[in-house]
Amino acid sequence: MEEEKFDESKDMSFWEHLEALRQGLFRVVIALVVAFIVLFFFKNFLFDKLILAPTRSDFFFYRWFGMETGLQLVNIELSTQFMVHMRVTMMCALIVCCPYILFEIWRFIAPALYQREKRATRRVFLFASFLFYLGIAVGYCIILPLMINFFDGYKVSEAVVNTISLNSYISTVNSTVLLFGIVFEIPTLLAALSQIGLISRQTLISGWKWAVLVIAVLAAIITPADPFSMLIAAIPLFLLYGISILVCKKEEPEEDEDEEEEKKEATA
Q1: What is the C-alpha to C-alpha distance for residues 215 and 235, in angstroms, rounded to an integer?
Q2: What are the backbone dihedrals phi and psi of residue 43, each rounded to the nearest 5 degrees, phi first?
Q3: Which domain covers residue 204, as residue numbers?
Q4: Which secondary structure element, helix H or strand E, spans residue 73, and what is its range?
Q5: How far is the C-alpha of 132 from the C-alpha of 97, rounded, in Å?
Q6: Cβ atoms 43, 141 nearer than 8 A
Q7: Do 121 and 213 share a domain, yes or no?
Q8: Tell me: the pLDDT tens digits for 193-227?
Q9: What are the beta bridge partners of residue 164?
Q10: Fewest C-beta atoms under 10 Å: which of 67, 100, 136, 163?
Q11: pTM score, whole prediction
């Protein structure tokens, strides 16, 4: 028997759906504003303990791998430090509110789903939140220190001294961390494509050679072009591909015509 949809979705018009979307967006904006205001007053913690920590040699990644760094940042514009404070606070507010944003997306689409589909999508959104934070952690703890260590020590000539601006460093932090948060959503995307039948577990397994090539190219793009950095970046991407294989559905074998006829006769 076909499962019934939620009652509140049966008689909702287009404008009622639009109103529900507006209310959801309003709640998301309120959550972001509240998180922004709270985090704005934790400037010392955000910058000294988190954002600027990878510029110092006592950062745990450098200690683990015996690396040295001493990135010195400078500010050359009057308003940059204040604007950087605003940008970093907004990025942190977005990261903190990510699960709530996903929850609002789920709450908007949930009324149109059957009970079985609702349970499945709830797990998908929880999984997406976990992978997003995992990607943030990988980008911040591994990829960012590798990039800082490489580019800070790279010189075209000893006559040229690296003087890194605060704005340039913050742009690198934001793009790297958020990029990996988004990249780690790939298993969620592939799982969704698997649910609608566009790909299957067998498709990913048979295409592992292409996956290795794509991951190697991607690792070369997002990290400095040295073998050690590429290997460190490629490992979590390979793990992501393995997770994608596990979360995808198996391809259902096609039944022979004789078996289909036997089933029809048995049910007749």
Answers
A1: 9
A2: -60, -45
A3: 185-252
A4: strand 73-74
A5: 12
A6: no
A7: no
A8: 777 667 778 888 888 888 888 888 877 777 665 67
A9: 73
A10: 163
A11: 0.77
